[in-house]
Amino acid sequence: MSEGKAVWLVRYSGEVGTKDKRTRWRIIQRLKDNIEEALGKNGVNAPVEAFWEHIRIYTDKDISHILRKIFGIANFSQAVHYTLPKDKEGVITLGKQYFKDKVKGKKYAVRVKGKKKGFSGSVIERKLGEALYSFGGGVDLTNPDITCYVEIRGDNLFLYAHKEEGLRGHPIGSQGNVILLFSGGIDSPVATWLLWKAGLNIDFVYYDLGGEDQKKDMLKSLQFLYENYGFGNKGNLYLIPFTPVIAEILKCRPYYQNMLLKYFFYRGAELLAKELKVPAFATGEALGQVSTQTLVNIATLDRLTPLLVIRPLLLTEKEDIKTLSKQIGTYDLAYTGKEYCALATKQVGTAIPYEDLIKEALRCNNKPFIEAVANKQKIYLDNIGNILESLEFQTPQLPIPHDAEIIDLRTPTEFERWHIPGSKNIPFTEAWNQFPNWDKSKKYFLVCSEGMASALLAHHMKQEGFDVDHLEGGIQALMNQLPTTLT
To answer: Which residue has the higher pLDDT, 179 or 347?
Structure first.
């Protein structure tokens, strides 16, 4: 058999084919760059060449696991590259030698792609099919077990017997830049994947509300996404310390608190977008999931900014989001605790008009918000692994320290139903406002229903120099771990 070169043929998604020549070539070059980055990060050193009809990667290594995670690829094939013989008989000879072992015991078909004078596709298909007949299990043009592909491009001949589907979509970075509000739950990683599939380069914003477990899970999810799918993404992660902003929001009526937090989220994204000269920001919001995502409240949020707000999950059901999350691989990495972006849980507004939200927002002190955005931390996505290694996440101790003053942050009704003996009931909002006057010489242990409020207040108290810990998972976790104590 004549010597051929091992090559991978990468074909462009249908989105690329609809563009004019100049735009198409720009997108092809972007895909080439992203493929080179993906190969490099996976330790593969191989020449990559871009052509109008496909990209060629010259290596005999199996790189299918890399190519199937790069956006902008319709399908790809492992092939052998020959110089085109002088006549079609030479093509048939090479085809027979290449395919004869592959068709053994299988129904097969022959397909010729490309055109060249003197090389009739229909003739090559018929004659090569006849040449392989004694080796295979018969011809089946409708539903073959294997298809023998013969591709002619100029003076080049490619032979291959398999096409593997790619992710399709646009190459990352080919359609512009966007900011994404990223939390690390189930929704925002899926939104990330869909934005990348749309060809967008993403800068990520994480509002740090004091939940160390949530921050850790967020970093793990983002690291996984970036290392597995983010080839070509040039954006960064911005951490914005938001506990001082919460202090202001908690002074407002519970009815408005959740929407006020979204109000400041949107304002922060808009300020960062202007700084980075980005025309839009995105969220993982889906219609009807929580109180801030009703149709009226989403319409109100849209009026907060002149920027385009992209919501790739807006009309997607939660179960479908979970399914895609599992396919992507982020489902088991998602933060599953209580979301810190839901401050109030009772008597919250589900249909707040824009004018009412603005009036309530104007009552808030704007200074903590401005300082929070100014104090944002920029993290390069390549450095997330190092950040994770350096972070120290404290795990609350059980049993509760004997010398700690136990503060129960739940409502009086919940406290009366059952509480830890010796604990003192100070509802969360009151405790948040009162703690600066507490005795710093004491040790404190905070509890709440599910661990969210206690973690938030403990984080803020530690920043102010208090010796404080909290019950991870809240009273519910204590019931599960120490059932005999609570009967």
So the answer is: 179
How far is the C-alpha of 73 from the C-alpha of 66, rounded, in Å? 11
Encoded tokens for 86: 């002088």
Six-digit token pair at 100?
């004869």
- What's 410's domain CATH number? 3.40.250.10
223: tokens are 């690291």
Q: How many residues does the chain have?
A: 487
> 351: Cβ–Cβ under 8 A, 6 or more apart, which residues?
294, 296, 297
Rounded to whole angstroms, what are the CA distances from 186 to 33, 174, 232, 378, 388? 30, 26, 23, 23, 20
Same domain, 194 and 309: yes
pLDDT, tens digit (0-9, with 9 covering 90-100), for 266-299: 999 999 999 999 999 999 999 999 999 999 999 9
Q: Which of 127, 133, 139 is nearest to 89 (CA)?
A: 127
Per-residue pLDDT at 343: 62
**Average pLDDT of the chain to the nearest whole number:** 91
Q: What are phi and psi of 67, to 5 degrees?
A: -65, -30
DSSP string, 264-324: HHHHHHHHHHHHHT-SEEE----TTSSGGGSHHHHHHHHTT-SSEEE-TTTT--HHHHHHH
Same domain, yes or no: 232 and 90:
no
Tell me if residue 28 falls in helix, strand or coil. Answer: helix
Tell me the pLDDT tens digit for each residue of 404-432: 999 999 988 888 878 888 899 999 989 99
- β-strands 146-153, 108-113 pairing: parallel
Q: Are residues 296 and 366 in the same domain?
A: yes
Residues 205 and 338 grouped into a single domain: yes
CA angle 209, 213, 216 (to 5 degrees): 95
Dist. CA 57–CA 78, nearest whole Å: 9
Residue 395 lies in a domain: no
Banded pLDDT at 485 (limits 50, 70, 90) = very low
How would residue 341 be classed by pLDDT, with cut points 50, 70 and 90?
low
C-alpha gyration radius of the chain: 29
Question: In the prediction, which pLDDT does 476 show?
Answer: 75
Range of the domain at 27: 5-165
pLDDT value of residue 154: 94
CATH number where 136 lies? 3.30.2130.30
Res. 396: pLDDT tops 80: no
Which residues are within 8 A (CB) of 264 and not within 5 positions of it... i.e. 6 or more apart? 242, 245, 249, 369
Residue 486 has pLDDT above 50, yes or no: no
Q: How many CB atoms lie within 10 A of CB 375?
A: 11
